[in-house]
Specification:
single chain, Dihydrofolate Reductase, subunit A, 5-stranded mixed sheet, elongated, binds ligand AOF, binds zinc ion, hydrolase, CMP_dCMP_dom
């Protein structure tokens, strides 16, 4: 199963809205085939492994990180292919919560006298598919806070000024995060101040640009802002209030930008509606890169699932913008926190990551 997980991980960030899945076929104690899912709409992991095993699949054991599917979607059911190939035993990492599968793959195999064991390295199998699992079970994407902050919790040195607080290794790590999330989101202030291109630029290897999402309730941004003009295979989507002038919407659309008008409340765009709309459009993960108002609002709405914070050993001082605006906690028990965080050194900085825990 560890080998199957290693296979599955080759597809991380490339299979959306489908899961990343790995499969390994073992016969007489030897690995005879491996396979992983590469892209939605193409053959599943099990099929790659079965094709590579050929006749050796007969009487063999298959290890697969996710329950084999039992439905005809963009591809035929893997459960049928597994049974037809004569696999004798299937070891499953986790059952598939997709309502189209949901235990039926396991049942199908057992009905054909194939031995099935489930829940092997289940936590690890879950961990590699958090976006898929959240999306399919809740209709919302996996929402991740990303920020570079100083020791005094500031995003920059002076209000209204751009500039990275963190070092080069953290920046590279951020680009690796962009590479594996479906979309990247910023507020209109961040675009006005930083004018970021929001693309993936890796020093080694080929990156994939995420969809660039900007929240701009009044459509106040200039049409020559970089997220609208920097060339990318990925598109740019803007969320605005339903009340904005049609002329402004059409101007952005003429640049190839997709515009989504949504409801507003006293705090601005209704974030729950924004994320639901993203999920409906196939976005399973969103990396939110700020700024303070957006981080504060998403946290306040308890929408964040995970955080990657890059802490730089510098004191930015009173001129800097604090990480969160509009968020208050009266005591530790009342505060949002990270659950069993991990600490990873990135150059002189440290990346603090973990799932959010809401009181
Ligand atoms: C994958 N790759 O390796 C496995 C999947 O539309 P389809 O036919 O591609 O089916 C997609 C569903 O199949 C997916 O949501 C998941 O529940 C199940 N298993 N999907 O894309 C795979 N094993
Ligand atoms: Zn399948």
């Amino acid at each position: 199963m560890r080998l199957a997980l290693r296979e599955a991980k080759k597809g991380i960030g490339r299979t959306s809205p489908n899961p990343c899945v790995g499969a390994v076929i073992v016969k007489n104690g030897e690995v005879v085939a491996k396979g992983y899912h590469k892209k939605a709409g193409t053959p599943h992991a099990e099929i790659h492994a079965l094709r590579s095993a050929g006749s050796a699949a007969s009487g063999a054991t298959m290890y697969v990180t996710l329950e084999p599917c039992n439905h005809t979607g963009k591809t035929p059911p893997c459960s049928h292919a597994v049974a037809a190939a004569g696999i004798a035993r299937v070891i499953v990492g986790m059952e598939d919560p997709n309502p189209l599968v949901d235990g039926t793959g396991v049942t199908y195999l057992r009905e054909r006298n194939i031995e099935v064991v489930t829940g092997v390295l289940e936590d690890e199998c879950r961990a590699i598919n958090r976006p898929f699992l959240k999306h399919i079970t809740t209709g919302l994407p996996w929402i991740v806070m990303k920020a570079g902050i100083s020791l005094d919790g500031k995003l920059n040195y002076q209000q209204g000024e751009s500039g990275w607080i963190t070092g080069a290794t953290s920046v590279e790590t951020v680009h690796r995060l962009r590479n594996i999330h479906d979309a990247i989101m910023v507020g209109h202030h961040t675009v006005a101040i930083d004018n970021p291109s929001l693309t993936t630029r890796l020093t080694r290897g080929k990156g994939r640009d995420p969809i660039r999402i900007i929240l701009d309730s009044a459509l106040s941004l200039a049409p020559d802002a970089r997220p609208f003009t920097v060339e990318s295979p990925a598109s740019t989507w803007v969320f605005c209030a339903e009340t904005v002038e049609e002329k402004k919407v059409r101007q952005l659309q003429s640049l190839g930008v997709r515009v989504f008008p949504v409801s507003c409340d006293a705090n601005g765009l209704v974030l729950h509606q924004v994320f639901r709309c993203l999920a409906e459009n196939g976005v399973t993960s969103v990396l939110v890169e700020g700024g303070a108002a957006l981080h504060g609002a998403i946290l306040r709405e308890r929408l964040y699932d995970y955080a990657n914070l890059f802490l730089a050993p510098v004191f930015a001082g009173e001129g800097g913008i604090p990480l969160l605006s509009g968020y208050f906690a009266s005591c530790k028990e009342d505060a949002v926190s990270l659950q069993t965080p991990t600490y990873t050194r990135t150059g002189d900085d440290v990346m603090i990551s973990g799932c959010l825990h809401y009181p």
